[in-house]
Every structure is written in structure tokens, then in C-alpha cells.
UniProtKB/TrEMBL annotation:
EC number: 2.1.1.266
The family this protein is said to belong to: Belongs to the RlmJ family.
Keyword Methyltransferase: yes
Annotated keywords: Methyltransferase, RNA-binding, rRNA processing, S-adenosyl-L-methionine, Transferase
Single GO MF descriptor: RNA binding
Keyword Methyltransferase listed: yes
UniProt gene name: rlmJ
Positions annotated as active site in the UniProt record: 165
Subunit structure: Monomer.
Species assigned in the record: Sphaerotilus natans subsp. natans DSM 6575
GO cellular component: cytosol
Protein name: Ribosomal RNA large subunit methyltransferase J
HAMAP family: 23SrRNA_methyltr_J
Record-linked Pfam families: RsmJ
Length: 285
């Protein structure tokens, strides 16, 4: 039984980094006049009310999207992402709702782009079905998303963006991500794959990034890009999320520049202590 509910965390600093990267990748990939398939292996509920008991419990969005909401001086990519979140709200002057990855993708994809969404949670799955009900070319599946890369790649149009965004509730998720990426690249070396991960005071996330680098160096046509943002200080008990990262395989070339402009701003605006930092590295060809 899954305990994790994304509603507790919607709009936090980790969603900001993840959804900035997702939206800017989709902006770029939808410029070409050829259909695209978006695979979201861990899709969540689709959208979240920030006045719900879940979201209010910790109000994580206050230290995430809440800190960017009223800023008029953001770099272009970041401003575009914030405007998409505003467009999901009934009143752009007040932050009341936060879009999940399927909703942001729905806003950016064209009518003939396909969506394949996986969600296992018995409460979030029907919510996701409802969110996507009107959209054609969309499959919403109550199935294990780790199998999606093997099952769905390559897509008929041979253009794919895959978001892998597990909750890492179970320690084996780290290894499953690497296996899924390897299987995906074996089937389709051009897949644009976005992996989100939490920064924790433990080894698994760092080891996973090293294994993803090796997988991409070996199997991806255009290499990889890695961005991470650390906002919180380490704790004495060793618990808590210090920040998060996005590992992008076959990154669109515009991503490096967009993140070079956005990460210093995110570090400044989302910092929860003086030692906030970011990493931006790549090995592209
Ligand atoms: N991608 C979403 C977004 O950005 O809005 C958030 C996803 S949340 C971090 C992870 C989701 O994965 C949870 O809703 C959880 O129920 C679901 N989940 C956990 N294990 C799964 C699996 N093996 N396959 C599909 N979904 C899973």
C-alpha cells in the first residue's frame, strides 16, 4: 500500500525545479511539426487545491512557488513556468491551485501529441482520470510506471519525452529507475528522459546519478544534463529533503542556457539557509 500523497508537497521547491525543466523541454519539443509522445511514469493526481487539508498541513508551496508568484523580474524560462501555474488558477492574483505534471503537459501539448500516464495510488488514479477526461490521445493507466519505458518506447512518431518522478518511498525505486532508463535507451536511444530525485543525507540518490551518467554515456545519442538545487541545511537527525535534482537524458540544447539563467535566481529566492547552492553539469554531443 502506498502512503505517499503528492498533495502534501505540491508546489514546493522540488516541484519548482522539476516543472521548470518539464515545461521548458516541452516548449522546445512542441516547436517541431511532428507529433510527440509524453510518458509520465508516476503521474500523481494531476492537480492540487492548495487550500486542501493535505496542502495546508505543511504549506510547502509557501517556500516554493509561493516565493516566485509575485516576482516580475524572473528570467524568461522561469517566468513562463510561473505564468503556466497562474493560468491554472481561477484568479492570477491569488495562488489557490497547483498543476501537477500531467496538467502542465496538457497545457503545452498539441491535439495530436499523445499522453501515456501511469499512477498506482487508488485515490490519486481516479482524480487523474477526471483531470484528463476531456483529452483525446490520452491513456491513463493504474499500472506500474517502471514498466512504461519498455512497453511504450519507441513511440510511433519516434519522438518521446519521459518523466520519471517516483516518490522513492521504497529504497528499491533508485535501482528501478536505472533499470527502466537502461531498458528505455536500449529500445530508443533518442528518448528525452527526465528523472527527478530528492537530495537526502544518504548515498542512494548520489549513486543513482552516477549510474544514470554511465547509462546515458553508453546508450543515449545526445548525452545528458544534470541540475540540482540545495535549499535546506543538513539536520542532526539526518532526515529531511535538502533539495532535489533533475537528470535529463538527450537534453534539448536550449536547456543548459535556460538553467544557467534560472538556477542562480532559484538559489537566491528559494534558499532556506545561507549555504544554498546549485549544480549544473552536462556531457552532451
Ligand atoms: N509527477 C507528479 C507531478 O509532478 O505532479 C508527481 C508524482 S508523485 C512524486 C509520485 C506518484 O507516483 C505518487 O502519486 C504515487 O502514488 C505514484 N506511484 C508510486 N509508485 C508507483 C509506480 N510503481 N507506478 C506508478 N505510480 C506510482
Amino acid at each position: 500500500m502506498l502512503a505517499y500523497r503528492h498533495a502534501f508537497h505540491a508546489g514546493n521547491h522540488a516541484d519548482v525545479l522539476k516543472h521548470l525543466v518539464l515545461t521548458q523541454v516541452l516548449r522546445y519539443m512542441t516547436q517541431k511539426d511532428k507529433p510527440l509522445t509524453l510518458i509520465d511514469t508516476h503521474a500523481g493526481a494531476g492537480g492540487y487545491g492548495l487550500d486542501s487539508n493535505h496542502a495546508r498541513k505543511h504549506a510547502e508551496y509557501d517556500d516554493g512557488i509561493g516565493r516566485l508568484w509575485s516576482r516580475a523580474d524572473l528570467p524568461a524560462g522561469l517566468a513562463d513556468y510561473v505564468n503556466l501555474v497562474k493560468a491554472f488558477n481561477p484568479d492570477a492574483s491569488r495562488l489557490m491551485r497547483y498543476p501537477g505534471s500531467p496538467t502542465l503537459a496538457k497545457m503545452l501539448l498539441r491535439a495530436d501529441d499523445r499522453m501515456r500516464l501511469y499512477e498506482l495510488h487508488s485515490t490519486d488514479f481516479p482524480l487523474l482520470q477526471e483531470t484528463m477526461a476531456e483529452r483525446r490521445e490520452t491513456a491513463v493507466m493504474n499500472r506500474d510506471g517502471f514498466g512504461a519505458l519498455k512497453a511504450d518506447l519507441p513511440p510511433p512518431s519516434r519522438r518521446a519525452v519521459v518523466l520519471i518522478d517516483p516518490s522513492y518511498e521504497i529504497k528499491t525505486d533508485y535501482a528501478k529507475v536505472v533499470t527502466a532508463v537502461r531498458e528505455g535507451l536500449e529500445r530508443f536511444e533518442d528518448a528525452v528522459i527526465l528523472v527527478w530525485y530528492p537530495q537526502l543525507q544518504r548515498l542512494e540518490p548520489r549513486e543513482m546519478v552516477n549510474r544514470l551518467k554511465a547509462a546515458a554515456n553508453q546508450g543515449a545519442r545526445r548525452g545528458w544534463l544534470h541540475a540540482s538545487l540545495t535549499v535546506a541545511a543538513p539536520t542532526s537527525d539526518g532526515f529531511g529533503m535538502l533539495g532535489s535534482g533533475m537528470f535529463v537524458i538527450n537534453p534539448p540544447f536550449v536547456l543548459q542556457q535556460m538553467l544557467a539563467e534560472s538556477l542562480p535566481v532559484l538559489k537566491r529566492e528559494l534558499a532556506q539557509h545561507d549555504g544554498a547552492s546549485f549544480v549544473l553539469e552536462h556531457n552532451t554531443r
